[in-house]
Amino acid sequence: MSEVMHGLEGVVAFETHIAEPDKEGSALRYRGVDIDDLVGRVPFGNVWGLLVDGGFYPGLPPAEPLELPVHTGDVRVDVQSAVATLAPLWGFKPLLDTSDDDARDQLARTASTALSFVAQSAREATGQAQVPDAVVAGAGSIVEQFMTRWRGEPDPRHTAAVDAYLTSAAEHGMNASTFTARVVSSTGADVAAALSAAVGAMSGPLHGGAPSRVLAMIEEIERTGDPLGYVKGVLDRGERLMGFGHRVYRAEDPRARTLRRVARELGAPRYEVAEAFEKAALSELHERKPDRVLATNVEFWAAIVLDFAEVPASMFTSMFTCARTAGWCAHILEQKKTGRLVRPSAKYTGPGARTPDTVPGWNPD
Ligand code: ACO
């Protein structure tokens, strides 16, 4: 096979039992279970168990009390670096020399500690003192512990919103960061190396996304009180409406549908304005592009749910990281079990064979 598949689009590189979006059917299932039956209904810690262990076991242990070793002021950078340090700290061997059971336990320890690092870094970034470990230990689920470490005394409705969001974004098939996690684990590197590499891959704006851009549009509609006029104005200027359209789905993004339900159930204060914006956008997009399915994507309703939980826009990518750690862990383990190194090829299109003296800068003396 010598045809170049740019960006690996359409290339099927792995078999997976974990999840793959149903692009035509507008569905996403974690090990066969529709996310709408999980989001806001099964705690994120158990969804982690479903993805990684195949059952609703309380998969994530409490985070081990550890001080965040890196403080850069950027939560994502702190977490990426801190996760990498766990391998020498906890004596992780390369995956190649680790049993499947030990690898699974290392992933669980690392994932829950990554959540703890996000909360610590968020407090650090805003100059707040850390919440004592004893207070965190008194909280219940893994998400309650996370929110307690971050907020001190979180509003339970905010915790519910964050839990729902984390489940909705826990896994999404062979996206760039999950592919990265699989590539690194296929080399036999340790689990912390694979997870921190995935965090790096997610940091790019083409992947980590920016629901904050949706909120900027909502704020503008709140100001003008005219959703349809706003939508027409954006489209007339040739700009895009944030939170609509998707590279993969040719129907509504199932995560948008589920998070819309969560926002409604939680009574998110921006639910009504968001719904009015969505209605105006969908009708106008349909009128202008009747041949193209342009529906609401996950970022739209994720923005409303995270906004309700008072998550600042600067934390959106880190929240996404917390969520997707579940999918990464599942894929790292699945890849380990294949025992196969990922090593694609490239079609060479550079210069033909030549001698060094034809290369600019040649100076043998
Ligand atoms: N608003 C207005 N027009 C749009 C939008 C939108 N949100 N999305 C696509 N279109 C139009 C394009 O202008 C294009 O029109 P044209 O054929 O006249 O040039 C047509 O629909 C097809 O657009 P593509 O770029 O081919 O759509 P693609 O599937 O490649 O892009 C993308 C998907 C990048 C998500 C796009 O829909 C977009 O920019 N949306 C807004 C940003 C956004 O919400 N991003 C988050 C995506 S969800 C996620 O990444 C997890």
TrEMBL record:
Pfam hit, one: Citrate_synt
GO cellular component annotations of the record: cytosol
Superkingdom assignment: Bacteria
SUPFAM superfamilies, alphabetized: Citrate synthase
EC code(s) of this entry: 2.3.3.16
Keywords, ordered alphabetically: Transferase
GO BP, one annotated term: carbohydrate metabolic process
Pathways per UniProt: Carbohydrate metabolism; tricarboxylic acid cycle
Location of the region described as Disordered in the Swiss-Prot/TrEMBL record: 344-365
Top-level EC class as recorded in UniProt: transferase
GO molecular function: citrate synthase activity
Entry's family note: Belongs to the citrate synthase family.
Record NCBIfam families: PRK12350.1
Name used for this protein in its record: citrate synthase (unknown stereospecificity)
Species per Swiss-Prot/TrEMBL record: Jiangella asiatica
